[in-house]
Amino acid sequence: MEYKLQNMLLGFCLSLLLANLGSSVSDDGLVRMGLKKRKYDQAVRASDDRSSNGGHGVVLKNYLNVQYFGEIGIGTPPQTFNVVFHTGSSKFWVISANCFFSAVVCDTHAKYNSSWSSTYKENGTDAAIAYSVGAVSGFYSSDSVKVGDLVVKNQDFIEATREADGSGIFSKAKFDGILGLGFQETSPNSSVPVWYNMIEQGLVKEQVFSFWLNLKMDDPVGGEIVFGGVDPNHFKGKHSYVPLTRKGYWQFDMGDVLIGDKTTGHCSKGCSVTADSGADLFAGPTSVVAMINHEIGTDGVVSQECKAVVSQHGSTILDLLIATAQPEKVCSQIGLCAFDGTRGVSVGIRSVVVNESVGDSPGSCSACEMAVVWMQYQLKQNQTPEHILDYVNDLCEKMPNPPQLSYVDCNSISKMPSISFTIGGKAFQLSPKDYILREGSDPASRCFSGFTAYDVPPPGPLWTLGYIFMGRYHTVFDYGNLRVGFAEAV
């Protein structure tokens, strides 16, 4: 299973929750979603003849800030489809005319019909893609693919004929398929990705593509992806570049995470992070997201195991942290972890756990590791032991619940701290107007955090920069130099 795509599907789940809400953006920059259903089809400027500084642009459409997609054509003459341009996968699929999905999917989305195209070439190899909440399957075909004003010849893609979608995500999605912009290494046995063929066929001048995402949902232009260059109108200043650490996903190292101007210390030795054009929220390890959401003032759920670990071992953990220079060994020293060295708090997190004994489950180890992270953060603030233990107990009461939104008091937004992420030695700041989203504009409306807990198993942990970050910072994916760059978006 392509685990990176789970992040994108978190966004799709969120879009389903908001699908019946209208939207507007207030002067303070907060996303506001009214109760009147928003008309989705908006007039957008033509993109076929648009070029940006030597590149070739495709205008994107924005649906509730949780789905960004653009129009492509497949076949001769082109049959048009709305697709998500997704950097977390290299696979490319659209719904087939031989669709055996539910009637809702087949009848409400564009479908590719090979008999209508003079450039179609039969392949027929079976294909399947598994996601965390569903799957699509079908067969490969080959045809010309029009992306903006570029035409990629003999491009293989999957005609999706079936789906297993217990959550209804694909049936309610506003797009007709996914065009992967990840590295072929993520799916070595799959077809050559579209981006690779653009380079091979000499269609782009530079081996880069760039994203500008417009978070203003009332704007008819939802953003733009430029192949072969960047549009200088979409950013200001210079991009800060960092090298990729893993050729497969657009993965690189991130430094310290700051809450306000205070370091958490969590990524001071480096954390892995990906820039994901298919994810909406900013996803990260439970331990740090819990701290961020606590400072924001979100609701959460109780972890009885976390509370039990802190009750029985909290003072000992704190004493060892004060006395030792090796915090990663604290949990093994007290017998809650069977090894030396943290696993990144990535497994065994369980919420609302009742009557579990401490020390005999992976969850106890993970709860201890979280407590270590939280205590280290408070020790850096020179807090007293009593305050630190109260703080850790409070976080055990408000653990993030990934499948659900973390709501906050809309009246407290002005008091919330900025959250910053250090990339390439530079702090990239998100203000409350960047990371808080709002449903409605009346006094009864609700606000929620843009940070969600997502624990990736080894080789995790792994952070994901989604639309919340990429909306604030224009992003360049430099394939030729294997690096990613960020600059303030305009």
TrEMBL record:
Disulfide bonds join C99-C106, C410-C447. Residues 68-487 form the Peptidase A1 domain. Keywords: Aspartyl protease, Disulfide bond, Glycoprotein, Hydrolase, Protease, Signal, Zymogen. GO terms for biological process: lipid metabolic process; proteolysis. Residues 301-341, 361-402 form the Saposin B-type domain. The keyword Signal applies. GO terms for molecular function: aspartic-type endopeptidase activity. SUPFAM superfamilies: Acid proteases, Saposin. It holds the Pfam family SapB_1. The keyword NADP does not apply. Residues 1-24 form the signal peptide. It comes from the Eukaryota. InterPro entries: Aspartic_peptidase_A1 (IPR001461), Aspartic_peptidase_AS (IPR001969), PEPTIDASE_A1 (IPR033121), Peptidase_aspartic_dom_sf (IPR021109), SapB_1 (IPR007856), SapB_2 (IPR008138), Saposin-like (IPR011001), SaposinB_dom (IPR008139). Belongs to the peptidase A1 family. This is Phytepsin.
